[in-house]
Design a protein that fits this description.
By secondary structure, the protein is an alpha+beta fold. Helices cover 32% and strands 17% of the residues. The chain has two domains: 63 residues, no CATH class; 91 residues, Alpha-D-Glucose-1,6-Bisphosphate, Chain A, domain 4. The protein has a four-stranded antiparallel sheet, covered by helices on one side. β3 and β4 form a beta hairpin. InterPro entries: DUF3576. This is DUF3576 domain-containing protein.
């Protein structure tokens, strides 16, 4: 029996050659297929300049998209800074429990407004970069889970929106 001995196994030279040929052929086919991607990994294509970084069809995907990291930890969520600051200004009598500028959420503890007799807590969410009433979500809760009159919630929302507009005018970006 011709062949080489490795440990207690004996391999034929032809089996090793077939294995090497199959591995080489598989690698060559994989690289050929990857090269068909139109310039991504291996260059290719005749595009040049700024268009070279753009896809012809934004909805087009490639196999390499599976391995890409689409979420960027340094990307900030767009929150309107005037609504954010106005919410903190208007509700400054409430102790802050948590603030998350990335999601636009401010959660306060219970506090009594100046000149008021009831204590409240608030949850504010700024959902959009636009200085607009639809960008502001406000929830008020009374002590012990007491319901708050819709007029009170509306008055606080109006106070926040008014203060946000004042901050924008003071910033001089009209």
């Amino acid at each position: 029996m011709s062949g080489k001995t490795f440990g207690h196994h004996q391999y034929k030279d032809s089996a090793m050659i077939r294995f090497a040929l199959r591995a080489t052929a598989t690698l060559a086919m994989t690289l050929s297929l990857a090269a068909c991607g139109g310039g991504g990994l291996f260059g290719g294509g005749d595009r040049s300049g700024p268009q070279a970084l753009q896809r012809e069809d934004p909805g087009e995907t490639t196999i390499w998209d599976v391995f890409g990291n689409r979420s960027n930890a340094n990307t900030a969520v767009a929150v309107n800074k005037y609504l954010w600051n106005a919410s903190l200004d208007v509700l400054n009598f409430l102790p802050i429990q948590s603030v998350d500028p990335f999601t636009g959420v401010i959660v306060t503890g219970y506090g009594t407004p100046p000149g008021g007799g009831r204590s409240y807590r608030a949850t504010i969410q700024v959902t959009d970069p636009a200085l607009d009433a639809r960008s502001l979500k406000l929830s008020l809760q009374g002590a012990g889970g007491a319901a708050i009159a819709p007029g009170t919630v509306r008055a606080v929302e109006d106070a926040i929106l008014t203060r946000a507009r004042q901050l924008r005018v003071a910033d001089g970006r009209l």
